[in-house]
Amino acid sequence: MTEQNMSGTFDVIIIGGGPGGYVAAIRAAQLGLKTACIDMFTGKDGKPAPGGTCLNVGCIPSKALLDSSKHFHHVGHEFADHGISVKNLTVDIPKMIARKDGIVKKLTGGVTQLFKGNRVEFFHGKGHLLAGKRVEFTPADGTPAISLQAGSVILASGSVPIAIPNVTFDGEFIVDNAGALDFTSVPRRLGVIGAGVIGLELGSVWSRLGAEVVLLEALEGFLPTADITISQHAAREFAKQGLKFHFGTLVKGANVVKKEVLVTLEDKEGESQLTFDKLLVAVGRKPYIDGLLSLDSGVRLTDRGQIEVDGQSRTSAPGVWAIGDCVRGPMLAHKASEEGIAVAELIAGKPAHICFDNVPWVIYTEPEIAWVGKTEQELKKAGVKYRSGSFPFAANGRALASGSSAGLVKMLADAETDEILGVHIVGASASELIAECVVAMEFHGSSEDLARIVHAHPTLSEAVHEAALHVDGRAIHRGN
Amino acid sequence: MTIEVRVPVLPESVEDAIIVTWHKKAGDAVRRDENLLDLETDKVVLEVPAPADGVLRSILVEAGQTVMSGDVLALIEQALAPAASSSATPAPAEAEVRQASVPDSSKFAAAAPASGVATTAKLSPAVRRVVAEEHIDPGSIEGSGRGGRLTKGDVLAYARKGGSRLEERVKMTRLRKRIAERMKEAQNTAAILTSFNEVDLNAVMDLRTRFKEEFLKHHGVKLGLMSFFVKACCEALRKHPVVNACIDGDEIVYHNFQDVGIAVSTDRGLMVPIIRNAEGLSLAEIEKTIEQFAVKAREGNISLEDLQGGTFTITNGGVFGSLVSTPLLNPPQSAILGMHAIKERPVVVAGEIVARPMMYLALSYDHRIVDGRDAVQFLVSVKESLEDPARFLLGL
Description:
The complex is a heterodimer of chains A (about 475) and B (about 400). By secondary structure, chain A is an alpha/beta fold.
């Protein structure tokens, strides 16, 4: 702590330095508030590593490995098509992991720099909320706890993986997302419990690197929250890539016997067993609130274990706010960041609003999956009259040229007003293509608006343009 | 805030305009879109409406003077408008004048692109398209989008509400084209005149009420009003054969039969199926024939045969509520009877004022061959038959 803050009094104290917390801290500081951010993450080098799950063991490292493994897979499986042959292809997993770690270090270091640049006081350690907006800070270096006083507190403590009964994480054979980012070699057989975002992404990584990957999913259907057209299309693509799915399958237990994981399953045909070299448990995440709140903090939890907040992220304790994975809403980094900005602005007395309607969803598999707004099944259920347009990447010049012609863009628009209600993409760069759709929807744009905007040629974005045209039955490069 | 009233953009071929009349004088209160003055060009007279509510502070160019596009004509002190509308529509006053000052569509088309630049700059692509196609002034619509922006849904809803200036061209059906030709042919050839009378339908109504069920049971068809009129007309046509005649070149063709056409409105347009030899038909037979036509019309399979010929026509505007009208001849026929709505009206019967179901009758006729006397007496005959249906029995 610097001299000026020895008093330990701040306008805002943020507990948690992930994409919700650190963004809130920077915004609060920008608005002239004296801001502190407490974060307990420690990097592999033993140094503070603010950035939360996202930067340390989530979004960023998984993307690093997804890209590394994609390169390996392309060299082995797709270069031949381009007339490029490579002999004696090998992969150095420790080097790949080290590269990933380097990226993480660069970004967490970047957050530290941003804190300095914005005069956010950073505290490495644990924060514990007391009554009256007091925060007890326990430093990570083992020095005695100190008490800080805040005008406002933002809880941004994030989430942790959910464990399932009879499957105990051991950090070596049975791992969570963090563990699956640090395998030192390619497992021959990788079991993944949960065919959701994390399971699919990390399953893809190790599958491309040569693992035989089996995904065990309790639900009957694949990606039930995605649009039905997209999930069906994606399921076919993943099956082609060699990912094996077992739907409607419950995991009853897992035991490590002689360096192998023996998993007991139950599906409608009864109990059976599968053997893996590694088992990744990715069944979801839950708010992380261990040791966050004192009994008299005044912050209530919901029956689902989330911190209870109102529409503007206020908790039940006056002056205490909560954002990100520890509250309601989708557990997405960009949702947490937006909440963080909104809350910082509200604390500074500015008008701000938080709306989850147009939060984009992305799954970084290959092909990528991205969507925003309502799915077709949601619209049907709600009785909304809509028009639908779609365009396959197989008819897109750029996609064909780059050899990534799998997938499609699907757009749903109100039958009467033509306002875009949802856009669903499975295909290369879906994560980037979805951005223009989010902008259009945030401005209540119509499919015709996108249809009348010039899209560069040749680009993948032309598929979005064509899908918009197709809503009105006037796509150029497909039947209408 | 002061707003300038400017001369709207004049069409390319027009260089200047003359102020014909000022409808307001300095100090007058004006409402938005209220006409301030008339401008005359060598092509057209233009109105220049007020661009906003307020007070006409001063007139800068007097009547009789010549002005050019964009010249300032007057200043208006704007009334305090709600902040929302003024901030949402920072359209310059000039553009407003242009939009509003367009009396006909060709003029509007010339002015629209110029004003479009000023007012559509901040609109989304789809909104720009709808506004241009529907000739909507975007400034007059409240936006529901982010920051009050207009969405496509906003302008579509506005267009549906009637803000649209769009015209739609639909090809005429053959039937409609034929109707158009024949209507104009009638007006071009015949010397059409209309005579009126009124009829008390008390007796006919009584009869219908009394024999309603019995008639239906016996004949399998409802006893309607039309059969009485057909019958009454047949009787009148017998007495005045010239009304049933037509001109063919230098000759008058008298028909010794009465083929009475009944005009019916269908989804496809007006149709006039013919009751052949109506003079020899009973009320029940007439009702049956009419019912057959009604079924055929509904099912869309009235044949050409059903429509050809006819020596006289009855049209009933009363079913749509018409109180009185002058029907147009159905050429080459020489007369047409117009029935109208039945209204309870006070009439004097035997020195007493009573309420009676009254209908105005109109007979349009071709004065080239039908004289006024025949026409008037024809109507009187129809009236008398209907007011005392016993005359049918007696052949009076």
